[in-house]
Amino acid sequence: MRRVPSRALRTLLTAACLLALVPGCGSPAPDPLVVLGPWTGAEGEAFEAALEQLDDGTGRTYTYEGTRSLRETLVSQLEADDPPDVAILNSIGELTEYARRGRLRPLAQGITERAFRPWAPTLIVDGKLRTYWVPLKVDLKSLVWSRKGASDADPAWCVGLASQATSGWPGTDWIEDILLHQAGPTVYTDWAMSRLSWRDPAVRRAWTTWAGLLGKRSPTSIERSLTTSYEGAAGPDGPRGLLDSPGFACTHEHQSAFIRYVYAGADIGVQPSARFLDGPADFRGAYEVSGDMAAVFSDDPAAQELVERLSSQAGRDGWRAKADPAVRPLFPTSTGPTPADPTERTIDTLLTSGARTLCFDASDTMPPELRDAFHRAVLEFFRNAAEQHLDSLLRQLDTVRTQATEEASADRSFRPPEDLCASPGG
């Protein structure tokens, strides 16, 4: 990953060069476009390679900054008035806040035409209809991983909830997926968009269903899950995955498609989570997904052009070609040849033709303060699943929901998105 001076420092150096009239100090080359994103390791390398091949001879280059602390990094850059040209975020809630506060630039018409609805919604900001982000890739979340040959009759669930500043999200994924398959996309959307109380019976049942699936756990196993990364224990070649980690006598894991990179080459199979979640048959065709959306933070026209090229079919094909099967990006519509890797092929088939409905990750849609409270509540519930404790947690979440809703309603110049679910074809 190439490092470049901050935009403010580059501007200062250019001005100093021109004022000093240094020989040979002519018109400076255009600054590299800075892209901030969530991918590191092999994922980051594949994306950076895709960026490099976008060079069209204009002399414009791109610098990718990948970080696991994406929100904190972006906030600090915004506070320093030195934002990236393009940022790739997975939270519609955060993107909505940035749009409402005037930090995002509306996308050009050519980009919005390929935006997958409803995850790239048209927002009303200051009375104008605008689109501010476009999904680059998605990951299927309604999945269960297990060692081939393991019985599905009485699964022992792997759970690792630690994830730095966002610890708890593997648990929110559980609750979201259970609610989607028990109550359906309409109830799921109403809850995610704060139109439904956290104390609604359907929401409460999702929490108690999760506790029932996990079964009785010892204090030692609870602490191990709370302090172990969702990636599992570290091995000599990187994370080993929870199914391969010592101390986890488990047979099944509920986790997103991205986790396949820790199981590359292992004898691990994947199947839809609906088979385990005690929901009606009508909702088995619904799948939860997460998305990585590109948004423009600068006025540089080249930033718009970059997002347009990344979201194009050619951009997708180039990205896939640069990535190994274990980290190859997934899209909500079929693209390119049928994957040769069996795990990738299974997930791609479920995503593009097996699903009737795709619903965006609920917590990634919530206002940041409500999402963070949800993460914390999951950790507390995992430690103590008593009914009285759950009632207290749900009351607290309802209070945060009400406050966030009132704050958003006070800004009449803005209307957030209303829908989260759509067919795979958009």
Any chance you could write out the topology, listing elements then pairs?
Layout: H1 7-20, E1 33-37, H2 41-52, E2 62-66, H3 70-79, E3 86-89, H4 92-100, H5 109-112, E4 122-125, E5 128-131, E6 133-140, E7 143-147, E8 157-158, H6 169-183, H7 185-192, H8 201-214, H9 219-227, E9 234-235, E10 238-239, E11 252-254, E12 268-272, E13 286-296, H10 301-310, H11 313-322, H12 342-354, E14 357-360, H13 368-383, H14 387-410, E15 414-415, E16 421-422
Parallel strand pairs: 1-2, 1-3, 8-11, 13-14
Antiparallel strand pairs: 3-13, 4-5, 4-15, 6-13, 7-11, 7-12, 9-10, 14-16
Helix pairs in contact: 2-11, 6-7, 6-8, 13-14
Features:
39% helix; 16 strands; globular; 2 domains; D-Maltodextrin-Binding Protein, domain 2; four-stranded mixed beta sheet; seven-stranded mixed beta sheet; alpha/beta; 426 residues
Q: What is the total domain count?
A: 2
Into which percentage range does the β-strand content fall?
15-25%
**Rg on CA atoms, Å:** 22 Å
Q: List SSEs in N-to-C order.
A: HEHEHEHHEEEEEHHHHEEEEEHHHEHHEE
Give the terminus-to-terminus CA distance.
Answer: 34 Å
Which stretches are poorly predicted, pLDDT < 50 over at least 5 residues?
1-6, 9-24
CATH topology of the largest domain: D-Maltodextrin-Binding Protein, domain 2
**CATH architecture group name of the largest domain:** 3-Layer(aba) Sandwich
CATH superfamily of the largest domain: Periplasmic binding protein-like II
Largest sheet: 7 strands, mixed
Number of helices: 14
| 3D shape | globular
Biased composition (Basic and acidic residues): 409-418
Organism: Streptomyces cellulosae
Region (Disordered): 404-426
Protein name: Alpha-glucoside ABC transporter substrate-binding protein
